[in-house]
Amino acid sequence: MALFNFRRDSAAATPDADTEAFLKGYSIEVMPRTAEKVEDFCALLPKGTRVYIAHIEGTPIEDMVATARRLADEGFVVMPHFPARIIPDRATLADWLARYKGEAGVKQALLLGGGVNTPAGEFDASMQLIETGLFDGFERLHVAGHPEGNKDIDKDGGDRIVMQALKWKQAFAERSDAQMAIATQFCFEADPVIAWADRLAAEGIKLPIHIGVAGPAKLQTLIKFAIACGVGPSLRVLQKRAMDVTKLLMPYEPTEFVAALAAHKAKHPEFGIESVHFFPLGGIKTNATWATDHGGASAVPANQA
């Protein structure tokens, strides 16, 4: 294991071995406006950490590229979001890609439909972005996953359309030189995630899964984001916690969720979850500190580079 110049509170518990292995090579998500508040990412994240840059509708591409350049200059692997429904046309997509590659050396991308109801132009889904051919030559492409369903896509509450799309992406991965993986929405309960990952494998979808994990945050904050993002059955974990007055004012931490998945992975090495992707809903510093205290101070493994 690589060593890093990280300080750890001597009072912190010794990390569980399974959790430490599971967190190795974790990634984290930022937005330009949240990144601006971080004075030094190198003091928070292990060098080489993959950092996704979320592209929210209305964010100027100049801000996105500047954030990517800063993170790349500080030694991080940069993966910007490309939400299909906010990209008006092929020319805009080509311009964005040229800027990212030319100014920040970006070679990785997360392709997703995006949370906008009405597309800005010709793109409605990540498959259309792939079909442009503009991402040919990228080293790594990630696509979105929803362990608890996506009613924006499958409006009947099922998963038929989502599964068809994932099978298409699996087929593309098999004929592409790019490394591909599924980066998921955050969840709070391990059992539905395990069942979903096993179902993908049974359906012939072998893309590695980077499971979304909500970082430590106030309970009210998590419930707000969970409802807004359409988190499904595992929302009950937060709702149950909210009913316990002894826990209502205490920050939520993903310790139990991560530990359960880590233990399952340790028992079943072939299990489809390859890595953890953090959504730092309670702040980047808070999330990074939690990850470090639980053994996550390690760079992106070679198979995820």
Automatic annotation (TrEMBL):
Which InterPro entries does UniProt cross-reference here?
A: FAD-linked_oxidoreductase-like (IPR029041)
> Record's Gene3D superfamilies?
3.20.20.220
Keyword Oxidoreductase in annotation: yes
MF term (GO), any: oxidoreductase activity
**Keyword list, A-Z:** Oxidoreductase
Name of the protein described by the UniProt record: Methylenetetrahydrofolate reductase
User: What organism does this protein naturally occur in?
Assistant: Gemmobacter fulvus
